[in-house]
Write a structure and sequence with these properties.
Elements lengths: L2 E9 L2 E9 L4 E5 L6 H8 L6 E6 L2 E5 L4 E2 L7 E4 L11 H6 L6 H11 L15 H14 L4 E5 L7 H17 L3 E5 L3 H7 L2 E6 L2 E6 L1 H6 L4 H7 L2 E14 L4 E16 L5 E3 L9 E13 L2 E8 L3 E5 L1 H7 L6 E6 L4 E5 L1
Parallel strand pairs: 3-9, 3-10, 7-8, 8-9
Antiparallel strand pairs: 1-2, 1-4, 4-5, 5-6, 10-11, 12-13, 13-19, 14-18, 15-16, 15-18, 16-17
Helix pairs in contact: 3-4, 4-5
Length: 343
């Protein structure tokens, strides 16, 4: 492994306890709700805060609390890019990139700017740059020092939507060309899926799930990941062909197995009716439309009741149902549309 980290940080009643192994050339995205410890993890890997545990990069031990070893940040081959880019305001773009370089630093800085297509900005001051341009310069400044570990803390979150997609594409190209380990902290699922080989989901200072974007979103293990994937997640105890839900109610699901399980229902699998549907669908509940949210060509309807769900229907279906906030409906889900797996 290029990076092996066992990081424990305890302060102000919060405990971070994370084990991480990342290969050279791999990009991982660390996601999680506010307060999960994502930025604390990056700062620990950068050597900015003291830890209990061990951090090893390319065979070099950077931290070992048992041995009393701690390599200062400036001596680590680690590059850190912040969301607000933190360019030196009194230096030109060229001097910003040259900062920290050794031996003919100006020539090297010009070379890096040229390869990035930013040479025409060399003499500009940071205050003359757009947000996207400043973030690109900040990334080049970091890459120019040739780190082995690249840490990016919400690198696109401060950008306008109009430039975020373009900057994301540029960042993707830069990450693909970077030969070391790349760790990206983000709250944006699109950003994570577009840029990362592997997702690491943190909650309350611990890793709760990790895997490829497809694996994580297909089998979420927490409410945060389910919201990330845009699906309904229910927890309960399985008994062969049904699941007794923790919040009350029963879910019919073929081959549910036995024991504690998680059940995923895609919002598009939730059908809505004004009257109880005819026939014998096994999963039918009375529900209240608590919230309607138009998203593109679909409407997400948050349902309250015995089994709280989110349904996704067309605007035409909303009109046909004369559906508004507070209205009563019937929700139905085919048993074959439910994915069940061990909790």
């Amino acid at each position: 492994m290029s990076l092996h980290a066992e990081v424990v940080v305890r302060r102000n009643g919060f405990a971070l306890d994370v084990r991480l192994d990342v290969d050279e050339g791999e990009t991982i995205a660390v996601l999680g709700p506010n307060g999960a410890g994502k930025t604390t993890l990056l700062r620990a890997l950068a050597g900015l805060i003291a830890i209990e545990g061990r951090v090893e990069l390319d065979g070099e031990v950077l931290d070992d609390s048992k041995a009393g070893r701690h390599v200062p940040t400036e001596r680590r081959r680690v590059g850190l890019v912040f969301q607000d880019h933190v360019l030196f305001p009194h230096m030109s773009v060229l001097h910003n990139v040259a900062f920290g370089l050794r031996g003919d630093s100006m020539r090297k800085a010009r070379d890096w700017l040229g390869r990035a297509g930013l040479l025409e900005m060399a003499d500009r001051m940071p205050g003359e740059l757009s947000g996207g341009q400043a973030q690109r310069v900040a990334l080049i400044r970091t890459l120019a020092t040739q780190p082995r570990l690249l840490l990016l803390d919400e690198p696109l979150s401060a950008l306008d939507v109009s430039v975020r997609a373009e900057t994301r594409r540029e960042l993707s190209r830069r990450l693909a060309a970077f030969e070391g380990v790349r760790i990206l902290v983000t709250h944006d699922p699109l950003e994570a899926i577009a840029l990362a080989d592997r997702l690491v989901v943190m909650e309350q200072g611990k890793v709760v799930q990790q895997g490829t974007p497809a694996d994580v979103t297909a089998r979420p293990r927490s409410r945060f990941v389910a919201d990330l994937a845009g699906v309904n997640l229910l927890r309960g105890r399985a008994h062969h062909d049904h699941v007794e839900l923790d919040g009350g109610g029963t879910l019919a699901a073929p081959d549910a197995g036995e024991g504690e399980v998680l059940a995923v229902i895609h919002p598009r699998a939730v059908a809505l009716y004004l009257a109880r549907p005819e026939g014998t669908p096994r999963n039918v509940w009375r529900a209240t439309a608590e919230e309607l949210d138009l998203q593109g060509d679909r409407v997400r309807v948050r349902l309250g009741g015995a089994v709280p769900l989110v349904a996704e229907v067309t605007p035409g279906a909303v009109r046909d149902l004369h559906l508004d906030r507070g209205d009563q409906v019937w929700a139905a889900v085919k048993a074959t549309e439910i994915s069940v797996y061990r909790a």
